[in-house]
C-alpha cells in the first residue's frame, strides 16, 4: 500500500514538473489563446518571477541530489567516522568550512547533501557548517561576486570573511544548543532504508545513484515549486520604496536586507548581481547582510529543510543564523 502511495506521489511530481516546463516552452502559444488582460499587471510579474526562480534552481537541485546520491552509494559510514574527530567537535569546524568551500552548489542544492551526511553519521553541527558555507565560499560564487563588485572589493572580501566567521560561530552554537541530537524527521517511506537494502549486494553503482537521485529530486520538487511561487508573490507585491528607505540605515539596514534576501530566495550564484544594482541605495553593511544571509537561509530553503528536518531544529537554526549574521555585519561597520 505504501509502495503504491509512493508511486502515486512520484507520478504526480513528475506530471507537475513536465506541466510547468511545457507551459514555459509553449508560453507564446498559450498567450495567443488567452485574453490579453490576463497577462497584464502584477500577474505576469508573478508568473515570470516564479518560472525564473524555478528554472534557475532546478539545475542546482539536480547537482545537489546527484551529490547526495553519490554520497549515499560511495561514502560509507565507517569512512566518515574515521574522518570526523569525535573528541574535538569544535576543532572539526574548520575542516568542515573548508569542505563546504569546495562544493560548487547553491543553498537549495546543498540541503539534500547535508541531510545525507547526517544520515551517514556526520555530526549535525558539522553538516550544517558545510550547508551554510558551500553556497557562499565556493569558487563560482566568489567569481560572480568579484564580477558584480569589481569596483568595490570591500564587498567581495567582506562577504567571504563574514561568511567564514559566521559559519564557525553557527556551528559552535548549534553544537552547544543542540548537541548530538538527531535533527532529521523519521520518515516511514525513507528511500535510504528501502533502496539501500534492496541494492546492498548489487555491483551496479550507477543504477543505485540514479535511483537515489530520482527519489530525492521528486521528493524535493513539490517544496521547490511551493517556495518559488510564494517568493514570486512576495517579490511582486512588496513595497520596494519602504525597503530602500530602511535599507540605507546602518542599524536597520542589515536587518531589512536580510529579510529582503529571505523573501527573494535568489540562488547564490546570481544574488551578487541583484545586490550590485542596489549599490547606490544601501550601505555596504546592508549589502553584506543581503549577500551572506540569503545563501544561508531563505524562504524556499526553509521549506526544503522543513521537509526533512524537525521543526524545532529548523527554528533553532534560523534563529542562530539570523542573530549571528546580523551581529557580525553590524559589527563590521567598525572595520569598514
UniProtKB/TrEMBL annotation:
Protein name per the record: Permease
Amino acid at each position: 500500500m505504501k509502495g503504491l502511495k509512493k508511486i502515486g506521489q512520484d507520478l504526480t511530481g513528475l506530471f507537475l514538473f513536465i506541466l510547468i516546463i511545457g507551459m514555459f516552452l509553449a508560453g507564446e502559444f498559450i498567450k495567443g489563446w488567452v485574453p490579453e488582460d490576463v497577462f497584464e499587471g502584477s500577474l505576469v510579474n508573478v508568473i515570470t518571477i516564479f518560472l525564473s526562480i524555478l528554472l534557475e534552481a532546478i539545475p542546482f537541485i539536480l547537482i545537489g541530489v546527484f551529490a547526495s546520491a553519490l554520497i549515499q552509494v560511495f561514502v560509507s559510514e565507517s569512512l566518515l567516522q574515521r574522518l570526523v574527530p569525535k573528541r574535538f567537535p569544535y576543532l572539526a569546524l574548520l575542516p568542515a568550512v573548508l569542505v563546504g568551500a569546495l562544493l560548487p552548489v547553491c543553498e537549495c542544492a546543498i540541503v539534500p547533501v547535508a541531510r545525507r551526511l547526517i544520515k551517514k553519521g556526520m555530526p549535525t553541527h558539522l553538516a550544517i557548517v558545510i550547508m551554510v558555507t558551500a553556497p557562499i565560499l565556493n569558487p563560482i560564487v566568489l567569481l560572480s561576486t568579484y564580477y558584480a563588485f569589481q569596483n568595490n572589493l570591500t564587498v567581495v572580501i567582506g562577504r567571504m570573511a563574514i561568511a567564514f566567521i559566521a559559519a564557525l560561530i553557527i556551528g559552535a552554537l548549534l553544537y552547544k544548543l543542540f548537541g548530538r541530537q538527531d535533527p532529521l524527521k523519521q520518515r516511514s517511506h525513507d528511500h535510504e532504508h528501502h533502496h539501500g537494502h534492496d541494492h546492498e549486494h548489487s555491483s551496479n553503482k550507477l543504477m543505485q545513484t540514479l535511483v537515489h537521485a530520482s527519489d530525492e529530486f521528486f521528493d524535493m520538487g513539490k517544496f521547490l515549486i511551493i517556495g518559488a511561487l510564494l517568493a514570486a508573490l512576495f517579490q511582486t507585491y512588496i513595497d520596494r520604496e519602504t525597503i530602500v528607505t530602511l535599507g540605507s540605515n546602518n542599524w536597520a539596514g542589515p536587518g531589512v536586507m536580510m529579510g529582503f534576501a529571505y523573501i527573494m530566495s535568489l540562488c547564490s550564484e546570481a544574488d551578487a548581481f541583484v545586490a550590485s544594482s542596489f549599490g547606490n541605495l544601501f550601505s555596504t553593511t546592508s549589502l553584506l547582510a543581503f549577500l551572506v544571509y540569503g545563501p544561508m537561509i531563505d524562504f524556499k530553503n526553509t521549506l526544503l529543510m522543513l521537509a526533512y528536518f524537525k521543526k524545532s531544529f529548523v527554528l533553532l537554526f534560523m534563529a542562530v543564523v539570523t542573530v549571528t549574521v546580523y551581529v557580525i555585519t553590524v559589527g563590521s561597520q567598525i572595520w569598514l
